[in-house]
Design a protein that fits this description.
heterodimer, A: about 325 residues, mainly alpha, about 0% strand, globular, B: about 550 residues, alpha+beta, seven-stranded antiparallel β-sheet, five-stranded antiparallel β-sheet, 23 strands, about 30% helix, disordered N terminus
Chain lengths: ~325, ~550
């Protein structure tokens, strides 16, 4: 069936609009962050209680989640910050709706699942990351202003998708014409999006940790990005956010790899063949598994585990950009020429 | 500490639900070989070692994706070694061009699996004990737990306890009576977390076994079949390439024959993207089985008992007619050409004619399904869809050198024969369908038509079902171990008149204060904790307490 050019163009326009809306949201989050000076006390206070509580590990941390900490936080926020925050969330949701419509239109225009090349895949990953962030927001409302740290990489990713990675709406080659694309690529991209949120939380965790260490040593950090630490939530909240997202994304990603293996068995005659893309999916999986273990190992918790989480996400990015664009293999569907 | 006496946690820092249960290795060489062996085993099965091995496994995989690999593309490996003569030989010796079959890669994952076994087996035992034994003794000071409250209830402590147990459906509970008349209820749930964790790790082992079975007893045979030409049976010498598992000697392959490739069809979208490849085959299964038909398509292999049949490639075979000077006609002179440009299927190959002609005759060149000319007036292909088939061939006469015993490609001619003068170039031509070229000796070669061919792969992997089952178990185990939380709930129930303010949290308002003349009343202190990753335990605790306080007590009437 021929590609519907009108719908494809509309899809492209909506993609652009979603980037614009996310950028608006990004600016609004910055506004919330800038005006939310008083939020910093609330954001750090649960952490202090925790340290004081001592003796009972981890468990106490969990009980501080959600309602309690969030409540104090919100009530102490400046009204401008509140307004900016609400605008930011609204713009994020609108951007997401427009982006999902863009994806749907491309699917309708091409009569196929709209994740067949790097441009489309990057778009799905961005959408998954935004959805994951909105879900985190429901559970941990006090981290709303962290949206700016998440939307920044999302906007960069979508910008790259729309420029460097862009591929016109076209039908897929026979190997990709299978219902497994709906299962394999969807789960992998959702997993990737969730890992992206975890990555952001981990980077913020490391910043906050450096900041806390400096404060404990009686120094006032002056160097960016450590200075950001003063307005970040406590390390326990960031660490929990990073862990929970990985704990949620890891089974999805695992399922995605297995679905890929089942598809490979039908399409290529073997379930696993160490194709470069498969190899890097394996590497990513192993490093995330290492993160989950590291987080429960004495001497590896905290900073070391966070670094493992960052490495894991780096392998994912490497797989997406370098393996797709530089190394050739069976997964050569980048759509780039 | 909150953990009860039966908790399988060591005093270190490791959460109970996570991996290692082994005590930290003692750095000591004293105590003889037994102690040394025990310490080495502990070290190997410790979580830190597992972590290091995980990193090593990830690291060891990297060259397998960045360097060309023999199993994937041997030609690329040879080209790479030719381009980097010095150190690529050392890399080759160390197995860097077949990373996933090297001893060092195997050593990494085998050590990891030994470490895993050393970890999982003791935990299996501990988990079984935990499942069979009662929840731990209730701590004295419940208000110190992360979630705690208290309330008063109707009835004597023993009745309240029995009622609470009835309401704690899904919890494993135990009622204990202490010396001072205080009745306690200890409840625990979320054992599935550790169950899932153990399933996940055990499934990884099963997965490895399944993969190994496939590598040892599986095989893969590939054959190129041209439309309407005779097919082949499942036997090693008949395949163009055969990759046996380590323990496959080539005999006793599943009885199966592809009688013929009846027709190959490629369909294209208007944009020129291929939409479907389809190979209609006639096959027979078993000893003397009746011929059956099937359409192999991409993503739709033929699945038979023990083997799977795939369509893995396709191309064209130009067909010529050779008319000798004496008028003898040799019809149907043909050979498959290999695609060199995948997008247009411009193909390259050689047709070799040995019998019925003297001297031997060869055509070497390219075939285009849709011929056109490029800037240099050379024939090229404009589209993979046959529209204007054409060939550009060089004709050779002489000795092809096939009887010398040296192997040569069926897709090209032996250039050494040309260099030695045994094989001479006698003509070259670009022909469209139906056109001929006449040689000096009067031989006429006509390009008649083309046939399509398909490469068919026959795969056997006896471990595949095991691998699939293990993969399903891996996901289920992961879901359980990451979603379920192990949590405990404690009730300390004492008669309401008991003058012991210590164990009742007075900060909480006490519901329904004792009415004069009513039945016995009890004070209930409740405490709870999530043993791993608290999550939303606070909410769950509030809900459970609500259910416990709900009156009238269930099942009391």
């Amino acid at each position: 069936m021929p590609v519907n050019a009108g719908l494809a163009t509309l899809s492209d326009h909506m993609f652009t609009w979603s980037i614009i809306l996310y950028s608006v949201a990004l600016i609004a989050y910055c506004g919330e962050y800038a005006f939310g000076r008083r939020g910093k006390v609330a954001a750090t206070s649960p952490e202090r209680e925790l340290v004081a509580a001592g003796g009972v590990p981890v468990v106490k941390v969990g009980s501080m989640s959600g309602a309690k900490a969030g409540g104090t936080d919100r009530s102490r926020r400046a009204p401008q910050a509140q307004r900016f925050g609400r605008l930011a969330v609204a713009a994020t949701a609108a951007g997401l709706a427009v982006q999902l419509t863009s994806l749907a239109l491309r699917g309708i225009a091409t009569h196929r699942w709209p994740w067949g090349n790097m441009y489309e895949f990057a778009s799905v990953v961005g959408a998954a990351a935004v959805i994951a962030y909105l879900v985190v927001l429901v559970r941990l409302p006090q981290v709303r202003y962290l949206g700016m740290f998440l939307l920044f990489p999302v906007v960069v990713l979508l910008f790259l998708a729309g420029t460097v990675l862009y591929a016109p709406a076209e039908p897929l080659v026979p190997a990709l014409r299978s219902y497994w694309i709906a299962i394999h690529v969807t789960t992998i991209s959702i997993g990737t999006g969730i890992f992206m949120v975890s990555f952001v939380a981990t980077v913020l965790y490391l910043i906050r940790r450096r900041w806390e260490l400096a404060i404990e040593a009686g120094r006032t950090p002056t160097r960016f990005p450590i200075t950001l630490g003063s307005r970040l939530p406590g390390t326990d909240i960031l660490d929990r956010m990073a862990y929970r997202t990985v704990a949620f994304g890891f089974p999805i990603y695992t399922f995605g790899i297995i679905a890929g293996a089942i598809w490979a068995e039908a399409a290529w005659g073997r379930y696993w063949g160490w194709d470069p893309k498969e190899t890097w999916a394996f590497i990513t999986w192993v490093v995330y598994a290492a993160y989950l273990h590291a987080r429960a190992t004495a001497g590896w918790r905290g900073t070391a585990a966070a670094r493992v989480n960052m490495v894991a996400f780096a392998t994912m990015i490497f797989n997406f950009f370098i393996i797709n664009m530089v190394v050739s293999g069976l997964h050569s569907y980048a759509g780039l020429t | 500490m909150s953990a009860g006496p039966d908790t399988p946690v060591r005093t270190g820092d490791v959460e109970p639900s996570e991996l290692s249960t082994q005590p930290a290795p003692v750095r000591s060489w004293h105590g003889g070989p037994v102690a040394f062996a025990r310490n080495s085993w502990r070290r190997l099965t410790s979580m830190r070692t597992a972590l290091v091995l995980l990193f090593l496994l990830a690291l060891a995989s990297v060259p397998g994706s960045l360097l060309p690999q023999r199993p994937l593309n041997p030609t690329k490996v040879d080209a790479y070694i030719a381009d980097h003569p010095g150190w690529s030989r050392i890399l080759d010796k160390a197995g860097f061009f077949d990373v996933f079959a090297t001893p060092w890669f195997a050593a990494t994952y085998l050590l990891l699996f030994v470490s895993l076994i050393g970890c999982v087996v003791p935990r299996l035992r501990q988990h079984a004990v935990a499942m069979l034994s009662a929840p731990p003794v209730v701590p004295r000071r419940l208000e110190r737990l992360s979630s705690a409250t208290s309330y008063s209830a109707e009835g004597a402590p023993a009745e309240v306890a029995a009622d609470a147990v009835r309401r704690l459906r899904g919890w494993k509970t135990v009622i204990r009576t202490e010396d001072d008349g205080v009745v306690t209820v200890a409840a625990e749930r979320g054992y599935l977390r550790e169950t899932g964790n153990l399933i996940f790790h055990a499934a990884l082992l099963v997965l490895l076994v399944g993969v190994a079975v496939g590598k040892l007893w599986g095989y893969q045979g590939t054959v190129l079949l041209t439309e309407t030409q005779p097919g082949i049976c499942n036997a090693v010498p008949l395949y163009d390439s055969f990759r046996p598992g380590k323990l496959v000697d080539g005999s006793g392959l599943a009885p199966f024959c592809i009688d013929s490739l009846d027709k190959f069809t490629a369909t294209y979208d208007p944009s020129g993207t291929p939409s479907q490849f389809r190979a209609d085959i006639t096959y027979s299964e078993g000893e003397g089985g009746a011929p059956q038909k099937d359409a192999l398509r991409v993503n739709h292999p033929l699945r038979l008992e023990g083997i799977r049949v795939y369509l893995v490639g396709h191309g064209f075979a130009p067909v010529f007619t050779v008319t000798k000077p004496d008028g003898t006609v040799l019809k149907d002179v043909s050979a498959p050409f290999l695609p060199v440009v995948p997008s247009t299927l411009l193909s390259e190959g050689a047709v070799k004619l040995l019998d019925g002609v003297n001297p031997q005759l060869a055509l070497y060149g390219t075939f285009a399904p849709f011929a056109g000319v490029d800037a240099d007036q050379k024939m090229t292909s404009l589209s993979p869809q046959p529209g204007n088939p054409g060939v550009a061939v060089v004709v050779y006469q002489g000795n092809l050198g096939l009887d010398s015993g040296a192997p040569q490609s069926v897709y090209s001619i032996d250039q050494r024969q040309v260099a030695s003068g045994a094989l001479k170039e006698v003509a070259s031509a670009q022909l469209t369908q139906g056109k001929s070229v006449k040689l000096a000796d009067g031989t006429q070669i006509t390009f008649d038509s083309y046939r399509e061919w398909a490469t068919i792969q026959v795969n056997h992997d006896p471990g595949q079902t095991v691998v699939l089952g293990a993969a399903v178990a891996i996901v289920l185990g992961l879901l359980l171990s990451l979603a379920v939380r192990r949590r405990r709930l404690f009730l300390r129930i004492k008669p309401a008149d008991s003058p012991d303010p210590e164990s009742v949290d007075n900060s909480e308002p006490v519901d329904g204060a004792a009415q004069p003349g009513s039945d016995a009343r009890s004070l209930v202190a409740v405490g709870g904790l999530a043993r791993t990753d608290a999550g939303s335990f606070e909410t769950e605790f509030a809900r459970v307490v609500e259910r416990l306080r709900d009156s009238p007590p269930v099942g009391k009437d």
